[in-house]
Amino acid sequence: MEIKPPKQVMNPGYTGENRCIPCTVVNLGIGGIISVVVASKFLLLGTLFFAGSVLTIYLRGYLIPGTPGLTKKYLPQRVLRIFGKEPDHTVSDGLAEIDVKSTEFTKNTGTNVDLTPEEVLVEVGVVKSCSDGSDLCLTTEFAQRWIREIRSASRTTPEQLAETYNLPQDKVTITETEAGCVVEYDHGVLGHWPSETAILLEVTASQILQEFHPKWDELSIDQRGILLMSVRLFTPECPQSRTEPSFEKGTVETCCNEFSVLNLTCEETGDVVFVQKLA
Fold first, then answer.
1. Same domain assignment for residues 115 and 229
2. What is the pLDDT of residues 129-182, one digit of tens each?
3. What separation in angstroms does the CA of 256 have from each of 14, 69, 100?
4. How far apart (Å, rounded) are the C-alpha atoms in residues 131 and 147?
5. What is the DSSP secondary-structure string of 174-193?
6. Taking a C-beta distance cutoff of 8 angstroms, is the pair 156, 174 a contact?
7. Is the full-model pTM beyond 0.70?
8. Cα–Cα dist 258/73, whole Å
9. What is the C-alpha separation between 196 and 201, in angstroms, rounded?
10. Could you list the residue range(s) of the whole structural domain that residue 106 is in?
11. Helix axes of 221-232 and 196-212: crossing angle, nearest 10 degrees
12. 107 and 78 housed in the same domain
């Protein structure tokens, strides 16, 4: 029979999957040094202190308060690599593992010229240069049709997302978490989206994009994923409030790192619909 400590005692932020191994090692080292010093005078007390330190680190993730934050800020990247915790500079937005090579596009005319996702969207008439020429904007036709789809949608079902990525409908599940939504396919992680709204936007956009892109049915899952993620950057309005989303800076934290991101957010609901890491 397995005995587990009460959940009230455990600190989920720094234990389990969120445990920072370098931080744990640093704290064990601190506990060991203090224990040796104490044991040199009082052997039993030093032994008890070390045992208590190990238990505290196991339950709380650290011995000295503030150590996790200091580890994220000051521990060199080369040290993190030693523990297999190389800084993760990706963000949870879309498919989990997009194969870069499988997202290469060529012109629809058959010309063997590699295109970026944005160039593909321009080619098929989804986006164009803005009136001032400073950036890209949705074309009027795509924007109007997308808004109609958004307003007619309520929630996104796993079956709809499966259809978007041409997957068996009975093997896709969507689970909401504090960090967004985890989508699983056939007992494996398909991807992480920042919110259910982000998934809804992809599903509604795909229903129109498949009409604009003449070879949509031939695209791989990765190709569809990178195009739909790119389209989300141009979200015309939020589903619940019917207002335009806005950009705001945020911070993404992992067990041993933190970095700045730019979020496209629906202010009324707080739903993030697109995430981009800042350099």
1. yes
2. 999 888 999 999 999 999 999 999 988 899 999 999 999 988 999 998 877 899
3. 10, 8, 26
4. 20
5. EEEETTEEEEEETTEEEEEE
6. yes
7. no
8. 8
9. 9
10. 94-242
11. 110
12. no
